[in-house]
Design brief:
single chain, alpha/beta, 7-stranded mixed beta sheet, globular
């Protein structure tokens, strides 16, 4: 997925008098203001399985042209209702670390060092959460857009999780590793094919391909969710009678595509199939009251779905210090 970042200009305020300048000077011994947020991770449990959401920052995507089948005015209205900017969408990235069956399992890997300047926070947050890349046993990939796979291999070619088994959807692999499809692809898509080869080329023989509807590791199974890409999958986590669904990219930001499930994001490769998948899955989790996680929802990117008129509503979980 190719995302362009937008520049944000900061406006300074001049202080015109000595008294104003004195009032603005921190008292001696006062703590200096901090420059950033606390580490971006959040833990919760599904039955006996522990999940840690890891934030990888965000990227700004210009709003014009982002929704292919909606008027810009309608998209801006939806943004305003969500108190979001009217010119660009802040797209967040959240992967999951799952502790199950004595193993550490990643679901997608973030942007690595190949994303927008405001992304690339994943490793710092991963380590802050107490994890080490050398301890990762398995990496499950939902689909092959760059913001999901680039964390596997940095620009210098180094593998980030050298001991991990890498598991990918069979249909996704067949599409993106097909030289004929790459050669006939539009110019704007060729870079995606090339990036897939950059990430997986050195380890292609060791990559394990899976089919949906099968358990991949203890408590985690893949669910077919095509449309966004040909082999895109969601992941179901089940433990202790509880069900959870990581829906990956069936939507981009929920304020747009959960509220308006018929809308098609520019990144959806088969818009009609993506809409069909989106509505089917949102209907299912709303009816079953299943907790979900989205890759592009505001952090920690998990909550529930309610049916709301012709669309749906995302209800984030309430933050709690308890795990």
């Amino acid at each position: 997925m190719v995302i362009s970042s937008a520049s944000i200009a900061a406006a300074g305020i001049g202080l015109g008098s000595a008294s104003a300048q004195t009032a603005a000077t921190p008292p001696a011994g006062a703590a200096a203001p901090t420059a950033g947020q606390a580490p971006g991770f959040y833990r919760y449990k599904i039955g006996d399985i522990e999940i840690t959401a890891i934030n990888d920052g965000f990227a700004m995507r210009p709003l014009e042209g982002f929704v292919r089948n909606a008027e810009l005015a309608d998209v801006k209205k939806a943004m305003a209702e969500a108190f979001l900017p009217d010119n660009a969408l802040p797209i967040t990235f959240t992967t999951l670390v799952v502790k199950t069956g004595g193993k550490t399992v990643l679901i997608d890997t973030g942007n690595g060092d190949s994303g927008a300047p405001t992304s690339g926070r994943w490793m710092a947050n991963f380590r802050a959460a107490g994890f080490d890349p050398a301890q990762v046993d398995t990496v499950l990939i939902s689909h092959f857009h760059g913001d999901h796979i680039n964390g596997l291999r940095l620009k210098d070619g180094n593998a980030v999780f050298p001991k991990a088994e890498i598991m990918v959807p069979e249909t996704e692999w067949a599409f993106w590793m097909d030289d004929a499809k790459m050669n006939s692809a539009p110019e704007g898509l060729k870079g995606g094919f090339q990036n897939v080869r950059r990430v997986f080329g050195q380890v292609a023989k060791d990559v394990k391909q899976f089919q949906p509807e099968k358990e991949l590791v203890s408590g985690i199974s893949a669910v077919a969710a095509p449309g966004h890409t040909p082999g895109h999958v969601a992941f179901r986590i089940a433990s202790g009678g509880k069900q959870f669904l990581m829906v990956s990219d069936i939507t981009n930001h929920p304020a747009l595509f959960v509220r308006n499930p018929a809308w098609a994001a520019v990144f959806d490769m088969d818009a009609e199939k993506a809409r069909e998948t989106r509505v089917k899955m949102l209907d299912m989790v709303a009816a079953d009251r299943t907790q979900v996680a989205f890759y592009h929802a505001p952090f920690p990117a998990t909550g529930h779905i309610l049916k709301d008129g012709s669309g749906f509503r995302f209800v984030p979980v309430q933050w709690t210090p308890a795990v």
